[in-house]
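May I ask for a sample protein chain and its fold as tokens?
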Amino acid sequence: MTHDVVIIGGGAAGLAGAVALGRALRTVLVIDGGEPRNAPAAGVHNYLTRDGMPPAELAAAGRAEAEHYGAEFRTGQVREVTGAIGDFRVALADGSEARARRIIVASGVRDVLPDIPGVAERWGGTVLHCPYCHGWEARGTRIGVIATAGPAMSAMKGLLWSQWTDDLLLFLNDSFDPDAEQARQFGVRGVRTVAGKVEAVTDAGVRLADGTVVARDHLVVASRVEARVDFLAPLGLKPVEHPMGVGTHLPVEDDMGRTSVPGVWAAGNVKDPAAVVISSATAGLAAAAAINMELIQADVA
């Protein structure tokens, strides 16, 4: 059959879109690869009434709601999307295929971590990235920010994370030399800087190239995010560098998530690397509403 909408990605954006479209009596297929970005996190935060819920539990609840409204689910990796508006073909790595009148791309991003031994093993635990996601849990502890994302972003992270602790160190990592104004701001916020190259992260803290180990309870690093949209290449859609310099994203043409290819929408981190879970869900709903109206217009044309 040809579904009204195939949604690629079963995170918050994809599930919210599936619920909205199901409630609009649309036929929906959600294809999910089972690799959620927030899997290492203990809980989802800033999601009204669901604060602290484990990510897997939130996803399971969202899937149950979508299924209640008739959405279908398929586990697998999308290999490519071909065709055009009204008749898209979604080919999966296992050789199966789905057809759809419209597409929502909610496949998210992958985090590319800095090449520092010990970071990957602690990612989402004692190594953090988002203060609004983890700041409350890390409040009042010894926090270290490792400069990994350029001077401007590193300075911003140092100032921002000082909101949650009075004991914050900014490890310059041989990549950042604060100017006079940045040094003044650090002084106001009580941010202290540590010179030297970061060699590794251990349970004891941060090990510098000279062998010094600086104890920290939590560390902050910036990952580079890369939009997972290689399967859109046959349609001429490719990720581009995000204006904030944090990685790549899929550009959209309006707030509803419309891409430059008619019939294809994007929602969640794939278009906005800074989106948190609740804003990703909002984006999925917005795309679903726009698609439902477009399908009505197509039927009466």
Notes: The domain at 2-111+223-300 is CATH 3.50.50.60 (FAD/NAD(P)-binding domain). The helical segments are 12-23, 55-68, 119-122, 131-138, 151-161, 180-189, 277-300. The two ends are 22 Å apart (CA to CA).
